[in-house]
Amino acid sequence: NKKEFNKEYRIQRENDGQIRWVHGLGEFSFDENGESSMMIGTIQDITDRKKSEEVIRKSEIAFGAFIETSKDWIWSTDFDGIINFSSPAVENILGYNPSEMEGKRSSEFIYNFDKKYVSEIREKFIEKKEGWTNLKLRYIHKKGGFRILESSGLPIIEDAKVIGFRGIDRDITDRMNREELIRKSLEEKEMFLYSYLVQVYETDSQMKKEIGYGGVSKWYFENRAELVYGIFDKLDSTEISQFVKWIDEYYSHGEYADRPFYEALEFAYRFQDASGETLWEKYENLKFGKIKPGRK
């Protein structure tokens, strides 16, 4: 009972046996009894289009899998800086669920002292219609403090106008802490380490004061502050320069070069407890196998 025919389907060519996709488009003619007597139309080979669609479909699946599994934060914003897409990795990096960020201005998550700078360079990128590479930005972590992200982004251009930005950010906080510690002189390293310890202590105290002990504050104490309190106790009998030396020793071994800073701090704390007069004796007497750099 249809008057029109509009369908995509596959055929097999007689001359070479190939399977081809075609688009059939036509109209039926009916006789006085209402029976179809003729169909006039066209058949177009759409095999190439179907192949392109399949390539795009597979690419979208692959890209979706990449977004879901990538450890880097993939994001996009509109012209006003409103986040309209945030990949799942942001939760591991900044502590926020993607839904907590989408619909909000990206500037809300920028560290306060960096907001003016970010606003200024953003205007320049819009004006020049260009992106950026390896730009270091500080973002506020949901559990307190900040993380240093290395950001790369590109403008989204439509009708010759910038309508937003998309990009990818990588957490380089631990790497920056390590590089900073390695670069500094012994005295500067001591000041850097002490400042880090004080920052963790003050953050822990402030969180307990504002929200009590439990949930986020409990996690922060068990994963950051408890170790710092232990080191403060050790400073009554151990010079802070010893902790700096053991941290340097930890990162001097290639297999530990990319480990987080707090793991090096844990090594220094445990190393201080190991018995022995020399470094080698301490190595031999360490009772924890998780952090024990090898020697050649």
| Tertiary shape | elongated
Oligomerization: single chain
Whole-number radius of gyration? Answer: 31 Å
> Number of DSSP helices?
10
**Rounded mean pLDDT score:** 82
Distance between the termini: 85 Å
Strand order of the largest sheet: 5-4-8-7-6
* Biggest β-sheet description: 5 strands, antiparallel
Please outline what is shown here.
The chain is α+β, with helices and mostly antiparallel strands and 296 residues long.
Keywords for this entry:
296 residues; alpha+beta; 3-stranded antiparallel sheet; 8 strands; elongated
Descriptive account of the structure:
The chain has 296 residues and is of the alpha+beta class. The protein contains ten helices and eight strands. The strands form two sheets. A five-stranded antiparallel β-sheet has the order 5-4-8-7-6, sandwiched between helices. A hairpin with a 6-residue loop joins strand 1 (4-12) and strand 2. Helix 6 (186-211) runs antiparallel to helix 7 (216-234), helix 7 (216-234) packs across helix 9 and helix 8 crosses helix 9. The protein is elongated and about 105 Å long. Residues 287-296 have low confidence and may be disordered.
Task: Give the SSE map.
Elements: E1 4-12, E2 19-30, E3 36-45, H1 47-69, E4 73-78, E5 83-86, H2 90-94, H3 98-101, H4 115-128, E6 132-140, E7 146-158, E8 161-171, H5 173-183, H6 186-211, H7 216-234, H8 240-251, H9 261-273, H10 279-285
Antiparallel strand pairs: 1-2, 2-3, 4-5, 4-8, 6-7, 7-8
